[in-house]
């Protein structure tokens, strides 16, 4: 974990500079530089100057990696935010929820129960549940649910439809009319009050 990464042994201080503003700079025998500020903030620069770690007095830690990734640990929230050079940002929460924000506007959230939700820049939303159920919500609000047993549900402003693996389709229209088409070819239509108005085989 980022907030726990600290050297277990101290290198020998080769040079120590105390500045008038209270800042102290130490150059260690392994080449690292450590700057300590009056407010308790500590900045450590690697010997090759490719990595910087800043430990703030509030417990937050910021690391700039050699590839220019920036990892920021928020101590109070116990949350880590990593920003990659390609624009990807990843947030890790203490409950094991992980959020990814892609440069193209897509967001992906992995919940602790392993449910995955994706929100695309065009407005499409997809949720993948651990039991295999998939829910897609289009920008216009249409919703498609695909269950792990092969059943599908489609919800639009005009109707709700359930499609079964055997080919049976049941539709309820917004006016209440119901239509059932069985895989055998049988068709039943009921009016909005549930009265059978057509039944043919």
TrEMBL record:
It holds the Pfam family Tcp10_C. One of its GO terms (cellular component) is centrosome. GO terms for biological process: centriole elongation; cilium assembly. The gene is Cenpj_0. It comes from Chaetops frenatus (Rufous rock-jumper). InterPro entries: CENPJ_C_dom, Tcp10_C_sf, TCP10L/CENPJ. This is CENPJ protein. It comes from the Eukaryota. One of its GO terms (molecular function) is tubulin binding. Belongs to the TCP10 family. Residues 12-45, 85-117, 122-155, 160-183 form the Centromere protein J C-terminal domain.
